[in-house]
Amino acid sequence: MSKLSIEIRNLYKEYRLGVIGHGSLYRDIQSFTSKLRGKEDPNTIIGSNQFITRNNIIAINNLDLEVQKGEVVGIVGSNGAGKSTLLKLMSRITSPTKGYIKYYGRLSSLLEVGTGFHPELTGKENIYLNGAINGLNELEIKKKFDQIVDFAGVENFVDTPVKRYSSGMYVRLGFAVAAHLEPDILIVDEVLAVGDIKFQKKAINKMKNVSTDFGRTVLFVSHNLDMIKQLCSRCIIMEKGKKILDGKTLEVLNNYQGYISKLSTDPVFINKNLKGNFYINKFYILDSNGKINNVFDRVESFQIAIEYTLKENVSDVYVSFSLHSADIQISVNQDTCVIAWSERHYKRYKYNTENVDKQPGVYTNTIEIPGYLINSGKYYLNVGLIKGEVAYENFQKKIILDLLDESSSHMFKTGRRSGVIAKPLDWNVKFISL
After folding, report:
1. Are the beta carbons of 418 and 406 closer than 8 angstroms?
2. Domains in the chain, ordered, with CATH?
3. In the predicted model, is pLDDT for residue 298 greater than 70?
4. What phi and psi, each to the nearest 5 degrees, are found at residue 182?
5. Residue 261 confidence (pLDDT) above 60
6. Which of 42, 46, 40 is nearest to 61 (CA)?
7. pTM across the whole model
8. Region of 21 on the Ramachandran plot (φ > 0 left; ψ -120 to 50 alpha; else beta)
């Protein structure tokens, strides 16, 4: 029978925007005394589906989760989905606004580069300090010391203050300490992305061993799907502070693809908030035949068209676009930028100037993306209207492009090529000698 390792019930985390407190001393005292008495905060409204207070953002929204002993659970989702906030709550770095988290065992976490290290102390001193914080005595730390140093590969720097360590050395030592102190629960954020590939593989193997050999629980946040697939038997997808998918890793990642595809199917975005002296009217995608579309073969070129209005003479207002991966095959991180370009970039590249002088009127800017350039998959289109260096209007994730691979797939017998750029390239072969 499985044993519970982590139990989360009705968890909320709210951050207030702009100011600290509710906006008046009276309401701050009211909220504080209510919490001391164990009563509901009178400045809070709890609805059936959401948690609302004045001027706030809900980072974790009514989350329930159970993790069994020995499970290795991957947590993925877009930036701002609530992954790191959840881990901070679990690591007791911050407190929940509502709900609770229960642990059954000792927890160790690695959330950010240098977490838990004192910059003025040496690597050796920090190992002993972290061990003591985690409840180990000097003899227990001493037994683990050589293993930690060897795993981190910092033998030559163990007596050097960690403030002189590179970010990679920080990560290696931090992970080595967290993994070797024999925690019942190990929590690792995407901080491992800072380390080199060799160390990443080493860390994955260590986490596997911690789970399979000692029956310990691992929670792992990463945008690297290969890591998630290699390490995790279970995967959770988060979005807007909620758990939207939870199950076996491969099934969840495949289902997430379908979830993404439902977010936006319209190839045209029309701005309904037309105000100010300059604004975007609409933007859309044109296929190689000049028809509005957002699903086409990747071997064909397509155009991005942006229509906007200027009501006065301008010299520093220009349009920009970027494509971002929305495909689980490439990355769960929906903010992974594939390509970005602006009118100012074009002016600088073509004419060695940043001048974008325009008369009042309605304009349409189009840009062509050549065929074969981008791999098959789904991509978000983001469009902005920039004034100087500041985004005056910024429309994100309003259109999803679906690039199919119907004409070029015969070239690659093993299926979809890896990577985002998938343009066929020429090899120049020169015979030198026998």
Report:
1. no
2. 4-259 (3.40.50.300), 268-411 (2.70.50.60)
3. yes
4. 55, 55
5. no
6. 46
7. 0.58
8. left
